[in-house]
Amino acid sequence: MISLSDVSYAYPDTDHYVLSHVDLGIEAGTVTGIVGASGAGKTTLAKLISGFIPHVDGGELSGTVVVDGVTMAEVTLAEAVSHVGLVIQSPFNQISGAKFTVREELAFGLENLGVPRDEMAERVTEVAGLLGITGLLDRSPYALSGGQQQLVAIASMIIMRTPVLVMDEPTSQLDPGGTRMVFDVMSSLRDAGVTLVIFEHKLELLREHADIVHVLADRQLIASGPSRTMLADPRLEDWGIGSTRFTDASSIARDRGLLGKDVELPVSLDDAIPLYRDFRSAKGN
Ligand SMILES: Nc1ncnc2c1ncn2[C@@H]1O[C@H](COP(=O)(O)OP(=O)(O)OP(=O)(O)O)[C@@H](O)[C@H]1O
């Protein structure tokens, strides 16, 4: 569904490559997590997958990016965005600036596609319900909190029903409840067959929702694996990505001989529970 072959990229008026010889393959209907330290190039990669590079940012690009059968550099941005939606990191910048209410804002992209009014209204109601923003529909997008704007930004992409959605830190402005809700919505999108690529720092949530995780460092995708294995990898510390409290605690317990040497370290609470149960039964209480 997504294929990057030998992709290198430098922003305009710079003399260095932000990404260098990147290869990536993503299967349809999967959830892929991409992690990397600050400045590693996550936003750049998100913009490449969704066609904003080269169509908006320009710069020097080599290699090919194919999404949903379309080579991104060879089609217009309008064509690219019909295949892949991008939720950008700053929700304020995602708002079109052309509309007075959230309802109109959500319908904006559909209007451009010529979707009939009745269907537009139905889709707005549906997506607003999904993201719990029905009560905001008649408010100005600019009168909302950062978290509310983020939900509107996500809704404005989901409503387009593209087969691929790329999300660049989609929950950065949300509280834990809002974050969980957005991840639950992502699960239902995945169930509906949407291919998701999530750039995210919240490793526990990524563990729960991503099938495969890739690590971006040194201008390349340098490691990848199933979320349980990749997100418990001790090298994540060296790459400036960190680790979860469950991995840290279990790693200490293992070093002190409380857990077996070859125990598979947990990333999330769900991973940790069976481990602690085994530990308790081994102790006989
Ligand atoms: N428009 C631009 N022009 C020139 N350099 C840029 C531009 N945008 C980003 N960069 C540089 O490209 C590199 C990668 O930036 P990018 O925003 O992709 O990283 P990131 O991993 O998303 O970071 P963060 O986690 O902080 O959002 C950084 O060194 C950044 O300074």
Automatic annotation (TrEMBL):
The keyword Calcium does not apply. Keywords: ATP-binding, Nucleotide-binding, Transport. This is ABC transporter ATP-binding protein. Gene3D superfamilies: P-loop containing nucleotide triphosphate hydrolases (3.40.50.300). InterPro entries: AAA+_ATPase, ABC_transporter-like_ATP-bd, ABC_transporter-like_CS, ABC_transpr_CbiO/EcfA_su, ECF_ABC_transporter_ATP-bd, P-loop_NTPase. Pfam families: ABC_tran. Residues 2-243 form the ABC transporter domain. Belongs to the ABC transporter superfamily. GO terms for molecular function: ATP binding. The keyword ATP-binding applies. PROSITE patterns: ABC_TRANSPORTER_1, ABC_TRANSPORTER_2.
